[in-house]
């Protein structure tokens, strides 16, 4: 018959073993609590950061239960951007795509996102939105989808930011460049010498008559700084004076003293006219030397 009695030393060893397991359990619980607290603090910090950003961060869940998506998170910046509180987007999944996005841009936006989803790529697009009060904004949207095939869900995370000022600036630049192109086409019809420069003093256009007047080739003129075309200090000083006047929106008239490529000096009566945008911004200048008999080479 087996003796089931335990000696005193065996009982003490078993008690110590139980005590060690208890301590391990307590340490595990403490570590879990600390990890949970750290995670919560991290989440709160991230949430505070997202809500402080000037734009709209979002997270949308797609599943069999929510084939059209369910907004799980929308940052506080959506209010300033769209005029709608975050709760409105959480409640109505169609609000942003079907009502806030500009009607003329909706099809393009939906197609771009759908194509990116099919290729399992992130997307980046610029489009217009109409805020609750009817204000038009241009926005950039960056987004990406993460598939969880195991659980049969897909999560889309993205950020939408207002780029209205940038879009207006780009549009203004396009319009200004269009004006300069039109001006250059018109300058081609002028029979005498013509030189067109931009706001930075680079030559945008020159005709053959100007090349013959100065002795520079067309390749040397177009794209070069006006000052680089000056062969003497006097020419450089004149060009600086002309640019200073036209940048103030005034017309410069006077006699231009130059030097031809062959070394001959010449002088021509000259008119420099500023080119400005509708808002008054300086775009460049048109210089029209008037060749007078006996003065030009």
Tell me the layout of helices and strands.
Blueprint: H1 8-52, E1 56-62, E2 70-74, H2 78-82, H3 86-91, H4 95-100, H5 106-119, E3 123-130, E4 136-148, E5 153-162, H6 164-187, E6 195-198, E7 203-206, H7 208-214, H8 218-221, H9 233-246, E8 252-259, E9 265-276, E10 282-290
Antiparallel strand pairs: 1-2, 1-5, 3-4, 4-5, 6-7, 6-10, 8-9, 9-10
Q: What do these coordinates show?
A:
The protein is of the alpha+beta class. It contains 9 helices and 10 strands. The model is unreliable at about 295 (pLDDT under 50). The strands form 2 sheets. Strands 2-1-5-4-3 form a 5-stranded antiparallel sheet, with helices on both faces. A 5-stranded antiparallel sheet has the order 7-6-10-9-8, sandwiched between helices. The chain has 2 domains: about 55-160, PAS domain (Beta-Lactamase); about 175-290, PAS domain (Beta-Lactamase). It has helices spanning about 10-50, 80, 85-90, 95-100, 105-120, 165-185, 210-215, 220, 235-245; strands spanning about 55-60, 70-75, 125-130, 135-150, 155-160, 195-200, 205, 250-260, 265-275, 280-290.
**Can you name the CATH architecture of the largest domain?**
2-Layer Sandwich
**Structure annotation, total helices:** 9
Number of strands: 10
Strand/helix succession: HEEHHHHEEEHEEHHHEEE
| Content-based structural category | alpha+beta
Q: Uncertain runs with pLDDT below 50, 5 residues or more?
A: 293-297
- CATH class placement of the largest domain: Alpha Beta
Percent helix, as a range, is 40-55%
What is the 3D form?
elongated
Identify the CATH homologous superfamily of the largest domain: PAS domain
Beta-strand proportion: 25-35%
